[in-house]
Amino acid sequence: MPAARFVEALNDQVANEFAASHQYTAIGAHYEAQTMPQLARFFYAQAVEERGHAMMMIKYLIDTNSPVRLREVAAPTAEFTDHIAPIRLALEQERTVSGQIGQLFAVAREEHDYLSEQFVQWFLKEQVEEEATMSELLEVAERVRNDPMTLEEYIAREQPGGDHQDPLAPPQAGAE
């Protein structure tokens, strides 16, 4: 069984991942209401991905005979001043999650919980990707600020979506 301190921190992170999913769903709904279907699709996919991360963490807790303690998730931000604000919020969120995952890794290391440390390594790598994607999206959004439909075209061209399963990703609870 993982260290008790790690189990508590991982349960907290499950809530953080569900909160991130909740926020991305709100952003997707915002863009869909603004008739920006490419951005809506992109953020809805991000919401599913964040939920998947939470489910991976739940699976790890279950596989290690650790308690799963679901926490409360706050309401997301749903109103934005312009079409760039949601992307700025998404980048801030990814930076926050990177810090949270780093702390989770630190707890595993401090507790000499090497199996949990190994489990968290995949999420560290994933956060590099997530931050880079949001940072790039924000740069493009700022560049085409006065022509938001150009941002829609960029998403359609550069973020086509599809199933890009990482074979090294941890399994998700309920995915078997």
Provide structural commentary.
By secondary structure, this protein is mainly α. It has one domain (4-69, 82-158): Ferritin, core subunit, four-helix bundle (Ferritin, Up-down Bundle), CATH 1.20.1260.10. 70% of the residues lie in helices and 0% in strands. The protein has helices at residues 4-33, 37-63, 85-110, 114-143, 148-158. Helix 1 (4-33) packs antiparallel against helix 3 (85-110), helix 2 crosses helix 5 and helix 3 packs antiparallel against helix 4 (114-143).
Q: Ends: how far apart?
A: 22 Å
CATH architecture: Up-down Bundle
Let me know the average pLDDT.
94
Note the overall shape. Answer: elongated
So, the CATH homologous superfamily? Ferritin, core subunit, four-helix bundle
Largest sheet: none
Fraction in helix:
over 70%
Text of the CATH class: Mainly Alpha
Strand content: under 5%
Number of helix segments? 5
CATH topology value: Ferritin
Structural class by helix and strand composition? mainly alpha
Rg measurement, Å: 17 Å
Summed up, the domain count is 1
Oligomer: single chain
The run of helices and strands is: HHHHH
Number of strands: 0
Summarize the structure.
With 176 residues, this protein is mainly α. It contains five helices and no strands.
What is the topology?
Blueprint: H1 4-33, H2 37-63, H3 85-110, H4 114-143, H5 148-158
Helix pairs in contact: 1-2, 1-3, 2-5, 3-4
What are the key terms here?
176 residues, mainly alpha, Ferritin, 5 helices, 70% helix, elongated
